[in-house]
């Protein structure tokens, strides 16, 4: 029985893909997306502990072990999951041979791979322990087959490529008509070539030859015109389909919860955009070529059958041998392609670090070390390319030999048939023309098989995104209260499920309308997470958040956030003008509000120094900004929005004391009549708050006004005391 293999969709999906393969091996099909969520896959991948918890959830008994190769061969049952090369997970499903054992690996990135003991040792054994590696052992329990859960239910596919093709079916019919005409032209050409020899040359009729040649020219011209029209229609259709695909994809992304983006690498999302291009290439190139190849093979197959059935049989056998030979090398080529992709990524990263980190490289005198890192990667890339070239050469030599042998045999049979008067010389010439025309369609079948597999994987990745639940799957209440009071009741939150560390633990808090709340605490105490829960980016693991005694989850997240002006630590500056960055919530900027916003954020003097003023391009592709200038633009963005709720997360930590004093003075007036939540470390930012909450180890340990907390001489007092000592 061949071990089930499932390719990982993203760079972080190896753990869930391994678990899916093992479940399938034991006869249970589980949705990969369910396993991703059960494993709490994030940007940094997935932990072995979370894989173990997910495996237990679907009915396995698990045991994590640190063991050696000998114990793995003799003691433990397979399949099991291995921690591979310190950043990957694979399945070991079999060990064959005794004197020279072979390790059979199911790698979600590469496929089914067989390793010798040396390669296995290098990939599995921990670097800091010369004899042991990490494995997750899985044993099936009765619960595995008896228990039903949502992961066993086949996910409904809400997304289909045909939904995008159907509106353009009239173009598709036109393309089929064009292909039919092209095949008709191809059908006529061999007979014209035959007639030149059998009739024109044999009868020495120059007028007939000229007439046939004119007909060939006209047919060739018709082919060119037909090809131009067909390709134009195809481009027109696929361009529209591609735009619709990408537009719907981006629209879907904007409807997904922020938790989705926290679990995906940017590269994986960009890969989805590339997937659209791959699908478009498949539609415009491979699929059209396949249809054309099928028609061509049928037409010319009929002609060969009419000439001599033996020739058709030799052609079919030779073509099958050629395709089989090419396919023999496909797995190795795919494995090398994956290795090349991985090493090229490392190589590019080394090069980017060499260029972008030049200042630090020179400061620390590590020019040679960084250059050697790149050279080492380049050498590996070169070695992979050499191996790929060797395989390509062997593949091409064998393929050419089979193809030429087939053509020579057909030529021999045709020549013998001419000698035996079973075939005319013109028919033989027509056969040579047909053989030349049939080489391309055979190769197109191989190309279609390769690109079709890639396109299917791309489509699966897109389906995964489109089948995800929107942030608001049903219409929610858009009527946000005018004077909202926010209440947190026993709020607990964990990023990675019930077995992970609690980021917030039983937090209860009242935030009255038009009051200022300050949240302080050590780094990692849960301050920013608390803000994200209040903004509706995440749902509490336990407990609830209420707005005027109504659950926050009942309100539209978009409508709620439109009532909030937010400055986050990781606030983003777009590559656009200053005015567009600040007035991003308005399609038509209000200049009066804009001027007030830049005044409150103390940006007026800075803008006057710029040649283009507030039309200056900033961001990644524009004018460079200091950290303080970025924060002031983010503050101006929140002020311009002028919402009833303001949330500042370390919004002034990059400002100098003079700027901070001026801005906080102006903000104090702006805060009047608004609910304000501030996360900060500086005493000057929080001391005037109506209530100060101190978070420590995920819990609220103190709260009250500044003077009261100072008098208590608790954690808040120590934070302020340490800050003053550092300032001195």
TrEMBL record:
Keyword tags: ATP-binding, Cell membrane, Hydrolase, Membrane, Nucleotide-binding, Transmembrane, Transmembrane helix, Transport
Record has Transmembrane as a keyword: yes
Stretches assigned to the Peptidase C39 domain: 8-131
Domain (ABC transmembrane type-1) ranges: 175-454
Membrane spanning stretches: 171-193, 208-235, 282-303, 309-330
Gene3D superfamilies referenced in this protein's UniProt entry, alphabetically: ABC transporter type 1, transmembrane domain, Cysteine proteinases, P-loop containing nucleotide triphosphate hydrolases
Record's bilayer topology term: Multi-pass membrane protein
Molecular function in Gene Ontology: ABC-type oligopeptide transporter activity; ATP binding; ATP hydrolysis activity; peptidase activity
GO biological process: proteolysis
Localization terms from the record: Cell membrane
Chief location: membrane
The ABC transporter domain, residue ranges: 486-722
GO cellular component, one term: plasma membrane
InterPro entries: AAA+_ATPase (IPR003593), ABC1_TM_dom (IPR011527), ABC1_TM_sf (IPR036640), ABC_transporter-like_ATP-bd (IPR003439), ABC_transporter-like_CS (IPR017871), P-loop_NTPase (IPR027417), Peptidase_C39 (IPR005074), Type_1_exporter (IPR039421)
Keyword Transport: yes
One Pfam family hit: ABC_tran
The protein's name: ABC transporter ATP-binding protein
Organism: Bacteroides pyogenes JCM 6292
Upper taxonomic lineage: Bacteria, Pseudomonadati, Bacteroidota, Bacteroidia, Bacteroidales
């Amino acid at each position: 029985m061949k071990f089930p293999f499932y390719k990982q969709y993203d760079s972080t999906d190896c753990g869930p893909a391994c678990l899916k393969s093992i479940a399938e091996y034991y006869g249970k099909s589980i949705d990969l997306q369910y396993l991703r969520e059960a494993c709490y896959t994030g940007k940094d991948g997935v932990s072995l502990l979370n894989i173990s918890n997910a495996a237990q959830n679907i009915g396995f008994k698990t045991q994590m072990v640190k063991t050696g190769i000998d114990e793995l061969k003799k003691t433990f049952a397979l399949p099991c999951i291995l921690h591979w090369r310190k950043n990957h997970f694979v399945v070991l499903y079999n060990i064959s041979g005794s004197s020279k054992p072979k390790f059979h690996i199911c790698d979600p990135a590469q496929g089914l791979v067989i390793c010798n003991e040396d390669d296995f040792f290098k990939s599995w054994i921990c670097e800091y322990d010369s004899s042991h590696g990490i494995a997750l052992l899985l044993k099936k329990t009765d619960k595995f087959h008896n228990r039903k859960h949502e992961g066993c239910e086949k996910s409904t596919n809400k997304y289909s490529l045909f939904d995008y093709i159907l509106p353009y079916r009239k173009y598709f019919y036109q393309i089929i008509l064009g292909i039919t005409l092209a095949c008709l032209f191809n059908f006529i050409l061999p007979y014209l070539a035959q007639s030149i020899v059998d009739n024109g040359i044999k009868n020495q009729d120059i007028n007939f030859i000229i007439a046939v040649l004119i007909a060939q020219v006209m047919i060739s011209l018709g082919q060119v015109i037909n090809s131009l029209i067909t390709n134009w229609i195809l481009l027109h259709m696929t361009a529209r389909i591609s735009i619709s695909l990408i537009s719907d994809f981006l629209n879907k992304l904007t409807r997904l919860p922020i938790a989705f983006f926290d679990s995906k690498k940017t590269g994986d999302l960009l890969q989805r955009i590339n997937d659209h291009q791959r699908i478009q290439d498949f539609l415009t190139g491979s699929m059209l070529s396949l249809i054309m190849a099928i028609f061509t093979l049928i037409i010319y197959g009929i002609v060969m059958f009419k000439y001599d059935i033996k020739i058709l049989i030799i052609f079919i056998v030779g073509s099958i041998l050629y395709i089989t030979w090419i396919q023999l090398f496909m797995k190795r080529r795919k494995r090398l392609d994956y290795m090349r992709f991985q090493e090229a990524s490392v190589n590019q990263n080394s090069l980017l670090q060499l260029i972008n980190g030049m200042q630090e490289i020179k400061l620390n005198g590590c020019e040679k070390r960084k250059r050697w890192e790149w050279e080492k990667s380049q050498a590996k890339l070169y070695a992979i390319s050499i191996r790929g070239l060797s395989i390509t050469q062997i593949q091409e030599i064998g393929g050419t030999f089979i193809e030429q042998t087939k053509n020579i045999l057909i030529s021999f049979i045709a020549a013998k048939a001419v000698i035996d008067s079973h075939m005319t010389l013109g028919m033989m010439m027509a056969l040579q023309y047909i053989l030349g025309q049939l080489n391309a369609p055979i190769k197109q079948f191989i190309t279609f098989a390769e690109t079709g597999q890639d396109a299917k994987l791309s489509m699966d990745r897109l389906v995964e995104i489109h089948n995800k639940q929107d942030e608001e799957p049903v219409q929610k209440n858009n009527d946000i209260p005018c004077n909202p009071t926010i209440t947190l009741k026993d709020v607990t939150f964990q990023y990675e499920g019930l077995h992970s560390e609690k980021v917030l633990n039983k937090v209860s808090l009242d935030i009255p309308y038009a009051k200022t709340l300050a949240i302080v605490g050590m780094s990692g105490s849960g301050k920013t997470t608390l803000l994200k829960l209040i903004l509706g980016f995440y749902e509490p693991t336990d407990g609830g958040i209420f707005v005027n005694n109504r659950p926050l989850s009942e309100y539209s997240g978009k409508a709620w956030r439109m009532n909030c002006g937010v400055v986050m630590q990781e606030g983003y500056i777009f590559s656009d003008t200053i005015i567009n960055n600040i007035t991003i919530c308005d399609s038509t900027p209000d200049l009066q509000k804009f001027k007030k916003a830049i005044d409150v954020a103390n940006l007026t003097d800075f803008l006057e120094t710029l040649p283009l003023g507030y039309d200056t391009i900033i961001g990644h592709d524009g004018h460079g900004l200091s950290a303080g200038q970025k924060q002031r633009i983010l503050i101006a963005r929140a002020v311009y929005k002028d919402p009833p709720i303001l949330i500042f997360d370390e919004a002034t930590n990059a400002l100098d004391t003079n700027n901070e004093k001026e801005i906080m003075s102006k903000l104090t007036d702006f805060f009047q009549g608004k609910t304000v939540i501030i996360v900060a470390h500086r005493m000057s930012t929080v001391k005037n708050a109506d209530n100060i909450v101190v978070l420590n180890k995920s819990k609220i340990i103190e709260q009250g006004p500044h003077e009261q907390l100072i008098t208590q001489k608790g954690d808040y007092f120590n934070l302020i005391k340490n800050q003053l000592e550092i300032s001195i």
